[in-house]
Amino acid sequence: QKEVEQDPGPLSVPEGAIVSLNCTYSNSAFQYFMWYRQYSRKGPELLMYTYSSGNKEDGRFTAQVDKSSKYISLFIRDSQPSDSATYLCAMKKGSNYKLTFGKGTLLTVNP
Amino acid sequence: DTAVSQTPKYLVTQMGNDKSIKCEQNLGHDTMYWYKQDSKKFLKIMFSYNNKELIINETVPNRFSPKSPDKAHLNLHINSLELGDSAVYFCASSQVWGRGSGGPETDTQYFGPGTRLTVL
């Protein structure tokens, strides 16, 4: 079993839809959870950062962490064509540990 | 004023050749990384340097050798290139390594635009 599992999609939704992206993980030592967005032919960029369990909201984006279920989610409200990208979950055990990435989910938002 | 830059952007070469990829960051960060992203978009760390000191060395062939002449630069040299080395290689940097309890200010990794390596 891989440490971090993420459905690669692809996921195609109409503009304005609510998008739900998810990752599961097996290592209970992970404490820091991130979502990176990667546009085609670009490097990943940090979108959301959460520590331990709970929710975090930033504009149209909400990150949720459920450590008891080892499950993290990213919700995108009112999705826009500019949200079309690959979304990668990432997590780490502590400040001096490496980041472990999921495989990424390719999202297309159709106008 | 690019934060993390890599050269070259594209690299096409024959099997068996030796090549280098260069990375520079102007963010004043202490820590730099090399990642490999395969054709299925899986991003995997290869190496990390903190203040010119190697701190992460994942299981990669010893044909891959990183070098950090100063904390703003991290280069990757690859000997005897193989077909399986074809991928996109990303350089990244973050502010600091291993200090305190972490947080977005210290942990956020800033990625370069990538170097697309094709081995023929």
Report the structural category of chain B.
mainly beta
Assign a percent range to the helix content of chain A: under 10%
How is the biggest beta sheet of chain B arranged? 7 strands, mixed
> Low-confidence segments of chain A, ≥5 residues, pLDDT <50?
none
Number of strands of chain A: 11
Oligomeric organization of the protein chains: heterodimer
Tell me the fraction of residues in β-strands of chain A, as a range. Answer: over 45%
Q: Roughly how many Å is the radius of gyration of chain B?
A: 14 Å
Which residues of chain B sit in consecutive blocks of at least 5 with pLDDT less than 50?
Answer: none
Indicate the overall shape of chain B: globular
The interface involving the most residues is between: A-B, 25 and 30 residues
Question: In what range is the share of β-strand residues of chain B?
Answer: over 45%
Order of helices and strands of chain A: EEEEEEEEEEE
Helix content of chain B: under 10%
Our measurement of the CA-to-CA distance between the termini of chain A, rounded to an integer number of angstroms, reads: 37 Å
Number of helices of chain A: 0
Distance between the termini of chain B: 34 Å
Explain this structure to me?
The complex is a heterodimer of chains A (111) and B (120). Helices cover 0% and strands 55% of the residues of chain A. With 111 residues, chain A is mainly beta. In chain A, the strands form two sheets. In chain A, strands 2, 4, 5, 9, 10 and 11 form a six-stranded mixed β-sheet that branches. Chain A has a five-stranded antiparallel β-sheet with strand order 1-3-8-7-6, with no helix packed on it. In chain A, a hairpin with a 6-residue loop joins strand 4 and strand 5. The radius of gyration of chain A is 13 Å and the shape is globular. The N and C termini of chain A lie far apart (37 Å). Chain B is mainly β and 120 residues long. In chain B, the strands form two sheets. In chain B, strands 2, 4, 5, 6, 9, 10 and 11 form a seven-stranded mixed β-sheet that branches. The termini of chain B are far apart. Chains A and B meet through strand 4, strand 5 and strand 9 of A and strand 5, helix 1 and strand 10 of B.
